[in-house]
Amino acid sequence: MDALGKIYSTTTIVTMNAKEKANGIAIAWITRVSINPPMIAISVGKTRYSHTLLNETDRFGVCIMRPEAEKLVNFFGSKSGRDIDKFAELDYEKSPSGIPIVPGTLAYIECTIKEKADAGDHTIFIGEVVLQKLFGNDKPLLYGEHSMLNPWLRD
Ligand SMILES: Cc1cc2nc3c(=O)[nH]c(=O)nc-3n(C[C@H](O)[C@H](O)[C@H](O)COP(=O)(O)O)c2cc1C
Question: Using a 6 Å cutoff on CB, does residue 109 contact ligand 1?
């Protein structure tokens, strides 16, 4: 494992609803970037279907996942919305603006997209926080070198 593996991150499922097409993607590359206004950044691979959808909408949801939600994170992080509807068999809620909130969410943050930055094979989407919901006070699922989650960096 290289030094970059020592960067541990909060594991999330980022959801969106672009042109009536809902999708979600497991995202570990996420961070806060501004206090006032509150803003966060997510890094999304250019080949992901979610990358296409995020370019067709101005809003995304961040579902910060509970440790028990590993299986669902692996599902959203190994299948593409290009091939399947990841919500087809899922009993999920929607935010007031219609963005999916998946089961196993510990905290939900909804953002409007303010900036996009090119970063090699990824794009960084910077969002301003417009809604926050806390469903519990436990620690979230983390992603790092010893993670049991799907080793997505190899794909
Ligand atoms: C734990 C975990 C974390 C991930 N983090 C990211 C990430 O930060 N950025 C990214 O582009 N892909 C990440 N992935 C890979 C995508 O979730 C995966 O390629 C997904 O199938 C893309 O779905 P889509 O084509 O429907 O957008 C991660 C996967 C897993 C399992």
Answer: no
Under DSSP, the state recorded for 3 is: G
Structural domain range at position 110: 9-144
Whether 80 lines ligand 1, by a CB cut-off of 6 Å, is: yes
Cβ(52) to ligand 1 under 6 A? no
Tokens 């101005």 sit on residue: 58
Q: Is residue 155 part of a domain?
A: no
Q: Is residue 1 part of a domain?
A: no
Domain count, the chain: 1
Whether 123 maps to a domain, the answer reads: yes
Determine the Cα–Cα distance for residues 105 and 108; give it in Å rounded to an integer: 7
CA of 113 to the centre of ligand 1 (A): 19
CATH number of the domain that residue 121 is part of: 2.30.110.10
Indicate the pTM of the whole model: 0.97
pLDDT in tens, 57-90: 999 999 999 999 999 999 999 999 999 999 999 9
Phi, psi (degrees; rounded to nearest 5) at 113: -75, 125
pLDDT at 11: 97
